[in-house]
Design a protein that fits this description.
By secondary structure, this protein is α/β, with parallel strands linked by helices. The protein is built from 14 helices and 12 strands. Strands 1, 2, 3, 4, 5 and 10 form a 6-stranded mixed β-sheet that branches. α2 packs parallel to α4 and α5 packs across α13.
Length: 357
């Protein structure tokens, strides 16, 4: 059984793409070799061989050029270009990628482990069988640790693994479909972009970052009572920006939330019930803020409290937009981390950006 592990990667010079024939695979287990990353380009063999009308578009050379561009965009990474015939099955392709992921491919004194897969043209995709129906998907080509879909030798389809509840892709992935003419235009434009970035010394343009937004799910996740408090904070934006914090404003906000309760009184259960706990059973963060304000001000004479000391308490009673849609943010991060390419540090979202404004 092979187990994945992380290691520091020493800088490696970038060379021409690695070409791997289907019938002559060389795989090696983890040992003392230097380990690097590998991105596999699965290319429709007809396109790569310039068959039929593909020749006039010179797709073979453009695909090789694209492989160079991809390789130059990822440090410590080489590209393996793999032509795929129409006879190849998705199970055969998966087994090859699986070996590259766990065992790597030996080239000289170095060994390369799969970190990404890109499909170009009409390459067979796994046919997933599920309760909602069958559909093609690249997902099995990216999922090797506790795979969410496994090959059914009888049905010749990919079925759901009943022992896996959280699908998770381990490697980056993409699909470039299209007619020969469309692919030719894409590769030309893509290469021009790479050339311009190299000339302008802006190679960091291709950072692994993403801006994610799902307006429908965001709206569904909103807690209306927190949204009301957030909107109140927006109405008070002039006062907040000009530091017009005072005891009257603090008492007014507190009264809106807890009525005529004193700062020393406990938070009533009917108020607590308005702020549901999260999926992990943790208390709502805004309820924590209310309790913090109460603890801070309990026993103090508000009439004697300097206005400048009320700022922190007032801000705690005006939630950030990210808190209003906290469940959406949590679900989004889990979804993005399961792509195999991005994580929280490389992801921005609309709620986070709004909260910074």
């Amino acid at each position: 059984i092979y187990k994945p592990f992380l290691s520091l990667i020493i800088i490696v010079s970038l060379i021409t793409p690695i070409f791997i024939p289907w019938g002559n695979l060389s795989v090696f287990s983890h040992d003392s070799e230097k380990e690097y990353k590998m991105i596999a380009l699965l290319v429709d063999e007809a396109l790569y061989n310039n068959e039929e009308n593909n020749q006039k578009f010179d797709l073979r050379n453009k695909i090789i050029r694209y492989a160079h561009d991809v390789q130059n965009s990822y440090a410590n990474t080489k590209v393996s270009l793999i032509p795929v015939s129409k006879e190849q099955t998705s199970e055969e392709i998966y087994r090859i990628l699986e070996k590259f992921y766990w065992e790597g491919q030996k080239r000289g004194d170095d060994i390369f482990f799969l970190s990404g897969v890109i499909i170009i043209g009409d390459v067979v995709l796994p046919e997933l069988k599920s309760e909602v129906g069958n559909m093609p998907s690249i997902f099995p080509y990216t999922d090797f640790e506790n795979p969410s879909f496994i090959w059914d030798t009888e049905d010749k389809k990919w079925i759901e693994n009943p022992h896996v509840y959280a699908p998770n892709a381990e490697i980056l992935h993409g699909i470039i479909p299209g007619t020969p003419e469309q692919l030719s235009r894409f590769f030309d434009k893509n290469h021009k972009t790479h050339e311009a970035l190299v000339q302008d010394d802006t190679s960091d343009f291709f950072r692994d970052e993403i801006l994610f937004w799902n307006n429908k799910e965001e709206k569904k996740s909103m807690q209306k009572i927190l949204l009301s408090q957030y909107e109140k904070g927006q109405d008070l934006m002039h006062e907040r920006k000009s530091f017009q914090f005072n005891t009257e404003l603090l008492k007014s906000l507190y009264k809106d939330i807890l009525g005529e309760k004193e700062f020393s009184d406990d938070i009533p259960e009917e108020v607590r019930s308005l702020y549901p706990k999260d999926e992990e059973g943790k208390q709502n963060i805004f309820l924590d803020n209310i309790q913090s304000v109460k603890d801070t001000l309990a026993g103090e004479d508000m009439e004697e409290t300097p206005d400048r000391y009320t700022k922190k308490s007032i801000e705690k009673l005006l939630p950030l937009y990210a808190n209003v849609v906290k469940n959406y943010e949590s679900d989004t991060q889990e979804l993005i981390e399961n792509t195999g390419r991005w994580d929280q540090s490389s992801t921005d979202s609309i709620p986070e950006i709004i909260s910074l404004l």
